[in-house]
Amino acid sequence: MRNVVIQCLFYGSLTFGICTALLFICFYHNYVSNSQKETKEPTSVLYPDEKLQQQIIHGSGKTPRLHVRLQRPNKDETNEKRPILNLSKTFNYTDPEAVREFLKYGLNTFISKSLGNERHVPDTRNEMCRKKHYPSRLPTASIIICFYNEEFNALFRTLSSVMMLTPHHILEEIILVDDMSEFDDLKEKLDYHLEIFRGKIKLIRNKKREGLIRTRLIGASRASGDVLVFLDSHCEVNKMWLEPLLYAISKDCKMVVCPLIDVIDYMTLEYQPSPVVRGAFNWYLQFKWDDVFSYEMDGPEGPTSPIRSPVMAGGIFAIKRHYFNELGQYDKDMNFWGGENLELSLRIWMCGGQLFILPCSRVGHVNKQHILNEPEGTRAAIYNNLRLVHVWLDEYKEEFFLRRPSLRSIPYGNISERIELRKRLGCKSFQWYLDTIFPELEAFNRGH
Q: Which of 376, 374, 406, 408 lies closest to 389, judged by CA?
C-alpha cells in the first residue's frame, strides 16, 4: 500500500512538472517570437475584452485577422525611452515559483517587486504638450480603481503614481474597490499600507464577486467629485495626466475623454511611449487601435490636438459624473467585463455626446498575459456583446450575425430597460453613427 502511495505522489509531481514546463515553453516561444518581430511594427495595447473576443472568434473556425496600422511615434516622443532591465536577466524560466507567479498575475512579479511601490516614469508627452498651461480652477476628480487578485506592487504603484502626479486640490478622492480578492496581501497588508494615503482613499470591499462592470458602478455610486476617472489597477499615470482631461470636460460637459495609453511591458515592466492612435472595431466587435488621419493633426495644435475616436479602449477614461448618470451609466446587466467599452462608446456618440483621445494626457498600462483560458469570461463577453448588438446596431446586427451565426439563438437577458433608455435620450440611429462618426467601418473590415 505504501509503495502505491509513493508511486502516485511521484507520478503526480512528475505530471505537474511536465505540464508547467510545457506551458512555459509555449509562453517563452511566444514572447521571444513577438520580441523578434520587425521594429517597424509598433506596439499596441490589447485590453482584456479584446483578448477574450479573439478567443471567441478564433475558436469557431477561420476568420479574417484585423491588422493594426499605427503611426510611428515622433522623435520627441521617444527620446526618453530607457530600458529598465534586459529580458535575459529578469526572468528565470527554470524557477517553478517564477512560473507560478507569472501564471497567477500575468506579469513578471520579480521585476514588479524590485520596482517597489513607486517609481518615476519617462515623460512621453510631445514637446508642445509640455508648454501647455491649464487653469488653476478645474473640476474635481474622483479616481475609481477596481481590482481583483491584482499583484500587490502593481496595484500600489497605480495608487502612488496618482498621488504623486495629481495636484491635490483637483483630486477629490481615490475610490478603491476590491471585487472579493482572494490573496492575503490584498487584505490586512493592503489596509496597513493605505494608511499613508489616509483622507484621500476610500476602500470598498464587495461582499460577493460582481465583475468589473458592476464593481465600477459601485465605485461611481460612492463618488463625490465633479468628474469620474476610471483607471485599471495596473497603470502608472504620467506628468500632467489629469489636467488635460478635466479642462476638456470643463469646456463641454458632454465630452468624454481618454488619455493616450502608453505600454508597460508585462515582462520587463519598461514604460514605452505609444504613437497617437484612435479606437476602432470590426463587425466581430473586436476592438483595435487604428490610424489617426493626418488632417486631424495639421491644425495649429499639431500633434497635441484632441483625436476624435469612434470607440474607447475601455479601462481608462474621464466623464462628468452627472453626465455619466444621465447617460445611463453602464448596462448593469452585463456580466464581468467585455463589450462594455463599445456599448458605452456607441451610446456617447449616438445620444448627443463626444468621445476624444487627448495626446497630452498619458497613462501607462500593463498589457497582462493570461495563458489559461477563462470560460466564464468568454461566456460573459458573448452575452455582453449580444446585448449591445440587439440594443444599438439596428438592422446592422445582421453584419454581426453573418459572421457569428452560431450566436443568433444564445440568450442575452432582458434589454427592455436599455431600449427604453435609448428612446428617452433621443438617440440617433446606427446608420447615423456609420455615416458621421465611423464611415471607415466597411473599409476597415474589407482592408484588414
A: 408
